[in-house]
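Example 9 (inverse folding). The structure is encoded as follows.
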């Protein structure tokens, strides 16, 4: 094509001029190269209006069928993105790899306005057809791009601005392009960031969908990033082989391509096996557990699950804890429930005689759907025990839905529990929300820290329990529900009833049976617990020296199992593969070490001295703290206990940063893992 400036079309003149000179004044190289392709390769003329290219309805249907799983994964995310943009003059568009629009979200008004340009399902926006544009140029460059108004090749599109990002399939190939086309050219950088996040969500969903028979594994070097968009995600086969990975997984593991990672197994990547991570994830209630990078001193936090497709085969995940230490291979009794599946073992330990009896009682009462109330100090394992009850109950095939009434603002508990209809109140999600009670239908509803339930909601909850039906906010509809109720509290509910802070009728309704879980210091299976949690945190090769074990056994554990887990986590990290000794337990080591001969006898004495909920501040004198520091230590321990050893919450309460608090804790010899 000859590059002839034409009269009256300044945009076309500019395009020809840039192509001839080979650079763009504003420096957008991707656009310059695209213009050049349009002129030289596709022989397009920027000033000549074109009929939009559109494929037939039948051809569109064929393409939609071919990309059904991508469209399904993208549909919800595209709607959410559209809502986030809050721009009525915009459309969120998904094209296939030929630039054919297969799905679009916009207002009917904007859709009608842009329809004549071919911006609708079936429209073809490849560069060869539509010149430089977000979708087509993103495909051609395999790169995110914003094409603002006059950067479009054809004059007819210079009213629009589009930003587009590629979407990759689990093999690393581009499978689609996600685009936002708008009248506004403002905030393109912001739109590109949102598009990138949405594309990642679609890619993660696609991995789940295409590899539903594989074990999903989530990891990150920081525990708080696991289960977020930044996490590395793997789909792992039964034999531990990596079948798929997302982009963040590649990045974190320092790999260049999907091909590179797909030739690896879990034990090539981490110093552990798939089975080990699965077991530890299960026993930590799917909170991230430590996994070290193979052949490198890099620590990750990871969670792995059984394949989603196994959900339909509950026996595989189902397990029953009996009087034995429930460790790998010790779960033969699970067979009594009909399955001795290879995936069944958990390291949850319920060997203590009271817990064995409680579990047996619970199993009998839940057979008749009697509500169970669990009482016990903070961190004593109430949620873990509730899960064990669920797994033995007739509702085991349904979901276990946990709601922590203390961690939700009062105003949110109601909508969280009961759900709401679209637009039920200001700030409600447009699509409405299915409440936790409905989610628990057919399964178990676990109401943790029930004492924190506001009084007016107590009345609503009572009604649900009586009527066995729920009415979401903003609706008149009622839905019948059938679930096993387990609630828990570390506070003494009868005292709250006496003080008028908890409804008596609800208390009796919740406490069909009331079970007291012993604090860790009183548990007879403490040694097994220490070993099990240590294996969980440090891997099965982690060893405990004799003196360290004596210290752990003698400690009063005011924060119970949660505190034990923190201490063992940091000890395993400090020991770094060597045997754990006294020096890896700095806060415990400050206490006088009981001699081997006296250790067993010292245990109940220490426990008694500590009393219910007592702190280990009695350790302070041995650490050589001055009286002010000793006081500070005592106050911090109390606060940690109050906030269930959640460092972020304590930092918030004290109005200091987490780092400042960690430094303080370290100085005062309060051992807590920075992971939490
Ligand atoms: N039987 C067990 N075996 C191994 N680990 C356990 C067991 N019970 C609890 N844990 C661990 O102890 C920690 C606290 O458990 P959980 O959340 O169940 O306590 P809780 O009593 O519900 O706490 P809170 O009172 O703060 O709600 C978790 O990290 C959990 O993995």
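The amino acid assigned to each position is listed next.
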């Amino acid at each position: 094509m000859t590059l002839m400036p034409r009269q009256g079309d300044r945009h076309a003149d500019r395009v020809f001029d840039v192509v001839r000179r080979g650079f763009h004044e504003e420096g957008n190289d991707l656009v310059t190269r695209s213009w050049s392709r349009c002129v030289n390769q596709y022989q397009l003329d920027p000033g000549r209006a074109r009929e939009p290219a559109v494929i037939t309805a039948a051809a569109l249907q064929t393409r939609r069928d071919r990309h059904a799983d991508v469209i399904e994964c993208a549909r919800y995310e595209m709607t959410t993105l559209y809502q986030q943009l809050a721009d009525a003059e915009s459309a969120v568009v998904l094209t296939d790899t030929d630039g054919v629009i297969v799905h679009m979200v916009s207002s009917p008004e904007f859709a009608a306005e842009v329809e004549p340009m071919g911006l609708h399902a079936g429209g073809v926006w490849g560069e060869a057809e539509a010149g430089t544009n977000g979708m087509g140029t993103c495909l051609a460059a395999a790169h995110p791009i914003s094409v603002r108004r006059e950067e479009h090749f054809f004059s007819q599109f210079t009213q629009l601005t589009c930003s587009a990002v590629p979407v990759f399939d689990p093999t690393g190939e581009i499978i689609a392009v996600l685009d936002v086309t708008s009248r506004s050219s403002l905030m393109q950088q912001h739109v590109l960031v949102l598009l990138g996040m949405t594309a990642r969500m679609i890619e993660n969903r696609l991995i789940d969908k295409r590899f539903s028979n594989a074990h999903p594994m989530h990891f990150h070097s920081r525990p708080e990033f696991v289960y977020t968009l930044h996490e590395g995600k793997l789909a792992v086969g039964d034999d531990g082989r990596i079948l798929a990975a997302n982009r963040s997984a590649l990045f974190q593991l320092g790999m260049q391509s999907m091909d590179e990672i797909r030739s690896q197994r879990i034990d090539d990547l981490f110093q552990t096996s798939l089975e080990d991570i699965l077991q530890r994830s299960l026993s930590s209630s799917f909170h991230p557990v430590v996994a070290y990078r193979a052949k490198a001193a890099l620590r990750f936090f990871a969670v792995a699950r059984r394949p989603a497709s196994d959900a339909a085969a509950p026996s595989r995940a189902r397990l029953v804890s009996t009087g034995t230490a429930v460790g790998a291979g010790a779960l033969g009794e699970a067979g009594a429930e009909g399955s001795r599946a290879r995936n069944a073992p958990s390291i949850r330990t319920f060997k203590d005689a009271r817990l064995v009896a409680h579990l047996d009682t619970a199993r009998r009462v839940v057979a008749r759907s009697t509500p169970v109330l669990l009482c016990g100090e903070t961190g004593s394992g109430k949620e873990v025990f509730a899960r064990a009850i669920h797994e033995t109950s007739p509702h085991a095939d349904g979901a276990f839905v946990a709601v922590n009434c203390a961690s939700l603002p009062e105003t949110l508990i109601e909508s969280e529990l009961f759900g709401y209809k679209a637009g039920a109140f200001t700030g409600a999600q447009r699509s409405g929300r299915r409440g936790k009670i409905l989610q628990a239908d057919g399964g178990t509803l676990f109401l943790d820290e029930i004492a924190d339930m506001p009084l007016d909601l107590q009345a609503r909850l009572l009604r649900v329990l009586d009527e066995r039906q729920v009415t979401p906010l903003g609706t008149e509809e009622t839905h019948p529900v059938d679930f096993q109720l387990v609630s828990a509290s570390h506070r003494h509910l009868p005292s709250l009833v006496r003080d008028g802070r908890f409804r008596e009728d609800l208390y009796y309704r919740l406490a069909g049976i009331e079970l007291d879980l012993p604090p860790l210091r009183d548990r007879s299976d403490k040694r097994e617990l220490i070993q099990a949690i240590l294996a969980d945190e440090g891997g099965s090769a982690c060893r405990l020296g004799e003196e360290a074990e004596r210290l752990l056994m003698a400690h009063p554990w005011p924060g119970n199992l949660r505190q034990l887990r923190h201490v063992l986590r940091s000890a395993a990290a400090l020991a770094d593969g060597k045997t754990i000794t006294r020096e890896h337990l700095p806060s415990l080591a400050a206490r006088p070490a009981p001699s081997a001969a006296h250790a067993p006898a010292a245990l109940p004495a220490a426990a008694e001295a500590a009393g219910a909920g007592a702190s280990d501040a009695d350790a302070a004198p041995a650490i050589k703290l001055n009286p002010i520091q000793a006081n500070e230590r005592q106050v911090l321990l109390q606060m940690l206990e109050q906030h269930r050893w959640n460092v972020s919450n304590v930092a918030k309460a004290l109005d200091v940063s987490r780092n400042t608090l960690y430094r303080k804790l370290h100085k005062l010899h309060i051992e807590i893992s920075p992971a939490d």
